[in-house]
Amino acid sequence: MGWDNSHMHAFRIGKIDYAGIETVEHCGPPIRDEDSFTLAALIKRKGQVFDYKYDFGDSWEHEIKLESVLPWDPDLRLPICLAGARACPPEDCGGVVGYERVLDALGDPNNAKRAEFRQWVGQFDPEKFDLEKVNSKL
User: Fold this and answer.
1) What pLDDT shows up at residue 43?
2) For the chain, what is the radius of gyration of the CA atoms?
3) Residues 6 or more apart from 131 whose CB is under 8 A from it?
4) Cα–Cα distance for residue pair 65/46, rounded to 1 Å
5) Average pLDDT for the chain
6) Contact at 8 Å (CB) between 99 and 89?
7) What is the average per-residue pLDDT within 117-132?
8) What is the spatial distance between Cα 31 and Cα 28, in angstroms, rounded to a whole number?
9) Where does 12-113 have alpha helices with state H?
10) What DSSP state is assigned to residue 107?
11) Mode of pairing for the β-strands spanning 32-33 and 49-54
């Protein structure tokens, strides 16, 4: 997504949550340490779906579906993003509702919060998706 990983997150695969050690220590069992597992060990079937939640306060929730399993190719650099749309919402913008407020303010020259949001997000373009930048981060 482009966020800076400054918030707790968790994957839910089946009925089991996997998260970073900070989340495990803060929230306790039954959350499992994500560093003890690989997605390849847990997600194996085409069509399998799992959830990813980022920033428990803003509550960004993603449903991820395994579209296909490809044969191993040592020349292929993975992971790779094949396509996308729009920019990642700014960190700490308040989840879906907060992001809508940011977009409304940036799109309305008469909005009282426009200057404040513009100073915060800089030259943020919500329509821009930079596939090359995403893949360089991956």
Assistant:
1) 92
2) 18
3) 81, 83, 84
4) 8
5) 91
6) yes
7) 92
8) 6
9) 21-27, 39-42, 95-107
10) H
11) unpaired
Counted residue by residue, the chain has a size of: 138
| pLDDT recorded at residue 36 | 94
Determine phi and psi for 8, rounding to 5 degrees.
Answer: -70, 155
Answer for the pair 20, 9: CB distance below 8 angstroms, yes or no.
yes
Per-residue pLDDT tens for 43-91?
989 999 999 999 999 999 999 999 888 888 999 888 888 899 999 999 9
User: Apex CA 116: angle with CA 112 and CA 117, to 5°?
Assistant: 100
| Antiparallel, parallel or unpaired: β 49-54 and 9-13 | antiparallel
- Phi-psi bin for 129: left (phi > 0), alpha (psi -120 to 50), beta? beta
13 touches 25 (CB < 8 A): no
The percent of residues above 90 in pLDDT, for the chain, comes to 67
Q: Beginning with the edge strand found earlier in the chain, give each strand of the sheet holding 9-13 in spatial order.
A: 32-33, 16-19, 9-13, 49-54, 60-65
Mean pLDDT for 87-104 is 94
State the pTM of this model: 0.82
Q: Could you tell me how far CA 120 lies from the centroid of its own chain?
A: 20
